Amino acid sequence: MLINADFHIHSSFSGGTSQRITMKKLAEGAKKKGLHLLATGDCLQQAWINEIKKGEMEDGIISYNNMRFILSTEIEDMHRVHHLILFPSYDSVNEFKKNIEKKCMDCDEGRPHVSLNQAELLDLAIETNSLIGAAHAFTPWTSLYAYFDSISCYGGEPHFIELGLSADANYADRIKELNDITFLSNSDAHSPSPSRLGREFNRMDVNEITWSEIEKAIKKGRITNVGFPPEKGKYNRTACTSCYRQYSIEEAKKLKWRCYCGGTIKKGVRDRVEELANFEKPHHPKWRGDYIHMLPLAEIISHALHTPQNSSVVIKRWNELLRLGNEIEIMLDIDLEKIRKATPPAIYNAIRAFREGKIRISPGGGGRYGEIFIEELEEKEAMIKWK
Question: In angstroms, rounded to a whole number, what is the distance separating the alpha carbons of residues 32 and 256?
């Protein structure tokens, strides 16, 4: 059976997250999105694990309000590299937590910092039968490739690499050492909103939703990644973190990474991949699943109606479309004719343009997301202005 799984989210106990996050709201948002399995996030934090335990655990999977969850956390090591860890049981979580307590600087934080290196964390994950990989591996902040040139810093092979919002398989498979590694694409959601949950996810073929099946799918790479076109990510291009002006890598070096406005220039994922790449074009292993690009439905509606995403009209039209199915089904699977009959022409045309690959993206960088442009709508607007 095919399931959609998002393995990286956060609770309200992590910095920079919504205080509205509860297990109930996560379950509601995940169902609207079309996810079958969602990470708990922050499972080393005691108050949050108490909330998680209100669900029922069986075969490594927690059932809560008709949604299934898998135990997970993000952790920062001594080099500021972030790692995603998936756990098979509460016992595994407790053992891991006990092993890091003396090395943990803020264990009550949802995303704790530990004075351990990558190799030590990999060893602890293996000892507790957990799965570990580099979180948002290419971003210029707190990532593996921000501080290291190779996964060899793990002292062994991590179980996966999380691509992050500014990269996809075409980027990562230009790097030879990653050709044998499973890729995950996850949302890193900081709120329970369906526009955040599952904005990137993994489509997996499993016999049933259990830890052993999920572990097998990850270790064998039986995954189709779904997520942003890389240009949509907010760190895709080299850019200033204050004014977002974009630079070529040569310009940034010449300016010593200081923007004309005085802000800091951060190296973009595209340029970092160019530095690391062994191949001019991606070398996908035969077992690697496809990478499917997808955008949030609310953003498509917002662009079609020229209205902010959080406006009442966007929310209204989004809810109307959800009568046909969940958001993932609407964006990828449901027959376009059904969509045409269920929504105003501008929204139908925008969804159709997305399906047909007629959406352009002005790349993001420096911390600002890329902006989408729907070619067909732009052409019609230009004709109206010309007339």
Answer: 46
Q: Could you give the C-alpha distances from 34 to 67, 89, 313, in angstroms and in order? A: 11, 25, 22
Read off the pLDDT of residues 349-381 as tens digits, 9 standing for 90 and up.
999 999 999 999 999 999 999 999 987 655 554
Q: For residue 373, list its beta bridge partners.
A: 360
Query: DSSP state, 104?
Result: B
User: Do 203 and 226 form a contact (C-beta atoms < 8 A)?
Assistant: yes
CB within 8 Å of 272: residues ≥ 6 apart: 138, 140, 145, 146
C-alpha span between 360 and 155 (Å, rounded) = 41
- Output the pLDDT for position 136: 98
pTM for this one?
0.94
| 382: pLDDT strictly greater than 70 | no
For 281-302, what is the HEC assignment?
CCCCCCCCCCEEECCCHHHHHH
Indicate the DSSP class of residue 387. Answer: -
Domain ranges of the chain: 2-228, 295-386
Fold observed for domain 2-228? TIM Barrel (3.20.20)
Distance of alpha carbon 186 from alpha carbon 225, whole angstroms? 9
Q: 41: which 2 tokens? A: 């996030």
Contact 85, 41 (CB under 8 A): no
Give the number of other Cβ atoms within 10 Å of residue 322's Cβ: 18
Closest alpha carbon to 96 in 79, 116, 121 = 121
